[in-house]
Here is the input.
Amino acid sequence: MASNQSHTASAKVEFSTPEAAILEILLPGYTFVSGLLLSYLHIDLAAYFQYIVLLAVVVVASQYLWRYVSNWFEKYLVSTAELRLDDEIFNYLMYWWSRQPRIKRTNRFMAGVRLNSYWSVHDDSDDEEFDDEDKMSDDEQDSIRTESFDEYWKQIINRDKYKRMRFTPSQGRHYFWYQGRLLMLDRRYEQTQSRWLLNNEKLYLSCLGRDPSVIHRLLAEAQRTYVERDGSRTIIYRGQRCPSSSTFDWNRCMSRLPRPLDTVILDETQKRAFLNDIEEYLKRGTAAWYAEHGIPYRRGYLLSGPPGTGKSSLCFAVAGRLGLKIYLLSLSSRNLDEDNLWSLFSALPRRCILLVEDVDASDITHSRGRSMTKPLDHTDNDDPDDARTPPTQTHNNMPPTGAPAGQNGGDKPTDKTASEGITLSSLLNVLDGVAASEGRILVMTTNHPEKLDEALLRAGRIDMHIEFRLAMPEDIQQLYKSIYSISKSDRPHKVTRRQNGRLNSTQSQTEARNLSHGSDAKSMIPESEETQALNNQARIERLESRIASLAEDFASLVPSGVFSPAEIQGYLLKHKDRPERAIEQVKDWVTEERKKKNAKLAAKLEAQGIVKT
Here is the structure.
């Protein structure tokens, strides 16, 4: 018993030594563990004090040493590219990665069905259906045309139930091989005091060695893959506020197939003048000529006319023809202030179209006094009896009366705001102020140019004014032909293949009849492909001649200068497969639409107190 007491006493002495106190600080729980070992296993850790301290020091020092070595290694022996979400190169890499076969084999990935900026909207559209139809055989296409709507719609609904899943790398590090080099992709999310936000995401692309050329090649391939997916599509961006802050930025909203310029209903002289002026502005040497003569390298256009006459369509068609991107801007946003407006304009790339639709809808652009601009002949409404077709004119370099070109007479307006939005002064300064961006094309559309402030329309801001009109006879004929012309499904090579199938079955029957009647062997020789192509071309020419004749009949039944091209097109779409029926029923449609317009006009005048019913 005495020995046990002495052993306990020695243990207490052992636990209270300075060495034990130091070990307790370095290794929390040392006192408890050493007491257990001493009591049950009779192992005195104090005898190994120096080794334990050495081990603790090595462990702590190794952590700092590892950080130092890894930082030195990454700094001097690794090349790294940082990609931020607010830059378009982030979209390039994410789109490229999502298309790689390795994403299907990895066991760490992020899955989702939500559309992000690195997937365009048309990825989920019905364009894939059209592409698949082009790859189908003629028999398969004929079966599709003969299927009922219920069968077709059932397939579409079943397909739309399942959104396409997209896979991207998950958070963390991912190693992969590219062109024989080992690369690492590190996806990180930076936490903030607010809720988790996607815009805090960053990508780090690294490779061994101080030569980052392999990263450059990968990013160039990613950019090429991202850009080539759109083909000849027209990319449309929209200026809107970022969801995580109060700043504005250009966000890609969609990409659309280019619209043929000849489908825009407008006087051919005006259309050609508009296109030629833009081509002259964009051609080689123009920017240098502007700089040599001290002229800001900018160009502005005003497209005015009644609703539905094709103002935005012309802009979209020209953008598709020249391969330009369109940037949409709304001046009516209350969240758009002067700083954000400057930020949007400074972020515009060179050689793009800035489209401001319905510029008269914003109060800041309205005239501050008596308009100095000659108004159009049509009134503020779209009614046929009061909206007479104005003469078609194209005004180049049109300064307002009383304001010499190149001078800012009256260009210092009082600050007139749309609620909490921008002022007219800030808009004019961002258009052609000293610090205004250059190289872009400004296109503004309006239904009421007479409401716009004269400072907004002076030369240098608006260099060409194109007035759109209601549909004239030649416009109505062009609309009819565009609706009922030869479609892509009736292209000559496809028609020829379908005809070949029918000819083969017919020729076998003819050969049997000729053999039974002893016909000459020459009559059994099938038509050559060249002959078939000529016959097919002749059939198409007869059909186009027939459509042209029907277009004249249709135009003779629709009053001139009464309806907009959009209204007539809406009617023709109701009979898109029945051109003769469109002519038969057009008189009833004209009568009904006239009644609606007159009723609308009467209600408007009554509301204004002009007439009483």
